[in-house]
Amino acid sequence: MTVPGKLDFGILMVLADQEFVRGLRAAMAEQGFDDQGRSDGFVLRTLGEAPMTISGLAERLEITKQGASQLADDMQQRGYVERRPDPADARVRLLQLTDRGQAALKAARKYHRVYENRLRLTFGDRAIDDLREVLADIAGDAQVSTPHFRALMF
After folding, report:
1. CA distance 27 to 39
2. I want to staple 80 with a disulfide (CB 3.0 to 4.6 A). Which of 75, 112, 113, 153 is the partner?
3. Strands (E), the chain
4. Do residues 56 and 104 make contact, with C-beta atoms less than 8 angstroms apart?
5. What predicted TM-score, i.e. pTM, was given to this entire model?
């Protein structure tokens, strides 16, 4: 292995992210979720909290209503989300996860836990706790505490 101090820090961060995403996509594909789009994880985690309107999804993901509608349409066609009338107001349509969407979210969350546990076994709890602290600090409180990213943490 090349000495990490000799490699560009930014490039190492990008490569680590790419490796994580590659592994996640492979694990998801093995479980029948080989049609995941780049934004699906954000939508799955957001709707995993509670059903919401297109406007609510757009606000939470900090995108336009048109963008949220396109994401929802695409994910609905692939069987991850559905639109249902709001029980409180039948004129309002809520997006919610289908059984397939719930299963995909569960599979992704499991991959995240397994990945971190594997790192803990390899590098130890202290190293991973320190890494989490460094990454959170790099991201900054303003980023970590936004509703957009809070939805992704659970």
Report:
1. 17
2. 75
3. 81-86, 89-97
4. no
5. 0.86
Q: How many CB atoms lie within 10 A of CB 81?
A: 25
β-strand partners of 58: none
Q: What is the pLDDT, as a whole number, of residue 152?
A: 57
Q: How far is CA 99 from the centre of its chain?
A: 17
Cα gap 77→135, rounded to integer Å? 35
Q: What's the CA gap between 61 and 147, in Å, rounded?
A: 8
Two structure tokens written together for 148: 């957009």
CA geometry: angle 94, 108, 126, nearest 5 deg? 125
Residues listed for the chain? 154
Name the token pair of 60: 């939470």
**How many Cα atoms occupy the beta-carbon half-sphere of 107 within 13 Å?**
21
| pLDDT for residue 38 | 87
At residue 94, the 3 state secondary structure works out as strand
Name the residue with tokens 């991201």.
139
